[in-house]
C-alpha cells in the first residue's frame, strides 16, 4: 500500500471514535474534497480581484453543514479531514490513484458490483499500448487545423529548421495557439470509469502539453455515484479536462 494511502487512512481512522462507519467517513471526506476542489477556481479568482476568498455556493454550504452535524461531538473532525486532503494534494507530484486506493482499503467498495479497481501500474501498461496511436491522432488534428491557414503554415515552414526540444517548443508556443480554435480535441471515453485510473494512466503516457492545452479530453460514466465523484476529483487534481464525468 502506498505511503500516501496509509497516511490518509490513518487520519480518517481517528474519526471512527465518533461512532461513524468507515464508509460514511470516506464519503464525507470525499464530499469535502469534491466541494473544495470545485470551489477552488472561484476562490483563486476572488483572491486575485479582492484579496479575499469567494463565498461558498449554496450546495457547498449544505455539504459542510451536513458533515458538521454528523461530527458535532468531535471538535477535531475538520482538522483530520484537512490533513487527509493535504496528503492527497501532495501525492499529485506523480500520477497515481490515491483516492481509489483509499476507497478500496477504507471506503467499503461494493464487491457485488465488481468494484475491484485496476492497479495503477496495470492501467499504465494498458494505456501505453495505445499511447502512440493517441498522440498520433492529436498530431493529425493539429495538421488538419494548420492546413489552409496561411499564418500557421508559414510558422510551420519556419519551424522546420528546428530540432528536438526547440521544434516541440515552437509547435506548442507558436503554432498551436494560432489555430487552437480549429483543433478538434481527441476524446478518451471510459464507460465504466471507476475512480478514473485509466484516465490518469492515459495522461501519464502522452506528452503533458496535450492534456494541458485541452487537446485530449476525458469523458466517463459509472453506475456508482461515489465512483463518479472520485473520478471527478482525480481529473480536477491532475487538470485532465474531465468535461463529461457523470452517472449512468
Quick structural gist:
The chain is mainly α and 248 residues long. The protein contains eleven helices and three strands. Helix 6 (120-146) packs across helix 9 (197-204) and helix 7 (150-158) packs antiparallel against helix 8 (164-179).
Name the descriptors.
62% helix; 11 helices; 3-stranded parallel β-sheet; 248 residues; 2 domains; mainly alpha; elongated
Give an overview of the whole structure:
- The chain has two domains: 108 residues; 128 residues, no CATH class.
- With 248 residues, it is mostly helical.
- Strands 1-2-3 form a three-stranded parallel sheet.
Rounded Rg:
21 Å
Distance between the termini: 31 Å
- Tell me, what's the shape? elongated
Helix percentage range: 55-70%
Find the structural class using helix and strand composition.
mainly alpha
Q: What's the rounded overall pLDDT mean? A: 91
Total number of helices: 11
Residue windows where pLDDT falls under 50 for at least 5 positions: none
The total of beta strands comes to: 3
| Sheet with the most strands: spatial strand order | 1-2-3
Instruction: Please tell me the total number of domains.
Output: 2
> How much of the sequence is in beta strands?
5-15%
Q: What can be said about the biggest beta sheet? A: 3 strands, parallel
Which series of helices and strands comes N to C? HHHHHHHHEHHEHE
Amino acid at each position: 500500500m502506498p505511503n500516501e494511502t496509509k497516511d490518509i487512512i490513518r487520519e480518517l481512522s481517528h474519526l471512527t471514535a465518533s461512532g461513524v462507519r468507515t464508509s460514511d467517513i470516506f464519503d464525507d471526506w470525499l464530499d469535502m474534497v469534491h466541494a473544495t476542489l470545485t470551489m477552488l477556481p472561484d476562490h483563486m479568482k476572488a483572491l486575485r480581484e479582492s484579496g479575499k476568498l469567494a463565498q461558498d455556493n449554496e450546495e457547498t454550504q449544505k455539504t459542510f453543514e451536513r458533515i458538521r452535524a454528523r461530527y458535532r461531538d468531535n471538535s477535531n473532525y475538520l482538522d483530520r479531514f484537512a490533513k487527509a486532503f493535504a496528503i492527497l494534494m501532495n501525492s499529485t507530484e506523480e500520477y497515481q490513484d490515491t483516492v481509489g486506493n483509499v476507497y478500496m482499503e477504507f471506503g467499503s467498495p461494493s464487491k457485488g458490483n465488481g468494484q475491484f479497481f485496476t492497479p495503477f501500474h496495470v492501467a499504465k501498461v494498458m494505456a501505453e499500448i495505445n499511447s502512440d496511436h493517441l498522440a498520433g491522432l492529436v498530431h493529425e488534428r493539429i495538421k488538419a487545423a494548420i492546413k489552409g491557414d496561411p499564418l500557421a503554415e508559414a510558422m510551420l515552414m519556419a519551424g522546420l529548421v528546428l530540432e528536438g526540444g526547440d521544434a516541440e517548443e515552437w509547435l506548442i508556443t507558436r503554432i498551436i495557439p494560432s489555430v487552437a480554435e480549429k483543433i478538434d480535441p481527441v476524446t478518451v471515453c471510459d464507460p465504466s470509469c471507476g475512480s478514473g485510473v485509466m484516465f490518469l494512466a492515459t495522461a501519464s503516457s502522452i506528452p503533458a502539453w496535450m492534456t494541458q492545452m485541452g487537446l485530449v479530453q476525458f469523458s466517463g460514466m459509472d453506475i456508482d455515484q461515489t465512483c463518479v465523484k472520485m473520478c471527478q476529483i482525480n481529473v480536477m487534481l491532475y487538470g485532465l479536462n474531465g468535461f463529461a464525468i457523470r452517472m449512468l
